[in-house]
Amino acid sequence: MFSGKTNTITSPAMFETNAYAASSASSPLESTSIPRRDPTDRDVQVEILFCGICHSDLHQVRNEWADAMPTVYPIVPGHEIVGRVTKVGSAVTRHQLGDLVAVGCLVDSDRTCPQCKSDLENLCPNLTMTFNSPDAHETAPITYGGYSGSIVVDEHFVLPVPGNLDPAGAAPLLCAGITTYSPMRRFGVTEGKKVGVVGLGGLGHMGVKFAHAFGAHTVVFTTSPSKTEDALRLGADEVVLSRDTGEMDKHAGSFDFILDTVVAEHDVNAYLNLLAHDGTLTLVGAPDKPIPISAFALLMGRRKLAGSLIGGIAETQEMLGFCSEHDITADVEVIPIQKVNEAYERMLKSDVKYRFCIDMASLGAD
Ligand code: NAP
Ligand code: ZN
Residues lining ligand 1, CB < 6 A? Predict the structure, then answer.
């Protein structure tokens, strides 16, 4: 855009906000400041109160998805955001100053493709993710996420948070919640079904809460014997130590649905063999390396292997409503942002009970 007679290029109107960013795949996250655009007509400005820490943040900070989604540095991660509306554009109709709202993994999409028209913005080919996507507003080369003081987002991608949900516990619903809720709804997890959840981390513990709330017989598969009691408290009917083949064999051919949330390489065929005929194993975990699949594990019993990616905006709002009705939030360990690098190391050791959530008030302490 050219301004007046001087022919200088004007940047969009912006302001600065505090944030934590990594400058390379081997750098820690450190205090910095980033630009945000001034809200346009349809934008909402949100002061961030809490932001959950998802394993996808760590994958991308360390460029572990270099083949599928290379990281552009500096990166400001964070896509489990809850905050208060501090400014609204003139055309905003859905939100008002002071509202408690949430922003998840998406901040824009093309709104014209068949997926967007079917409320599946998460599958839009021109999707803008909350961080590490090209920034169409040109505020910065890429979008910056929720490890920051505020964020400016088109109102369509800002969700009201039901008042009875604890804001810190609600933040992880925006990724861990919808990512587990959506495939369970799609594949008919209901009363009378036998459902497995593999890996008891951020996603896994939400999966257990939802499967239990949907009335399914819920079985947790874990590599961590110390999590058995917690799994039962969270709603599991049974817990299987996945490294014990004898325990695994007892469940052969019996599951209607299994949700696999594991972050690293592991034997997916061992879980396919636990499916009943026509059962479905859905991968939501995103290991960086390809996973070998046995054709026979699929052929025998006409089993299905599926994937799932977060959820659309309408379904995310539906999930928040379900959580409000059933009093479901994530079990969070709230930390100041200065502990974020330590939290990443603990996440790598599966030492999370069961989601870290950053209290963004701590940003001011740097
Ligand atoms: P997380 O909190 O670190 O939990 C992952 C769990 O996987 C761990 O707690 C552990 O559970 C298990 N695990 C870890 N290493 C393992 C290994 N080597 N073998 C077997 N099990 C292992 O991670 P998260 O935030 O839940 O994310 C999980 C995955 O989902 C990540 O890859 C993330 O990027 C991906 N993700 C995908 C979507 C999507 O839309 N599809 C959305 C968000 C996240 P136990 O201790 O119980 O064994
Ligand atoms: Zn996530």
Answer: 54-56, 59, 175, 179, 199-204, 222-224, 227, 261-264, 266, 284-286, 308-310, 347, 350, 352
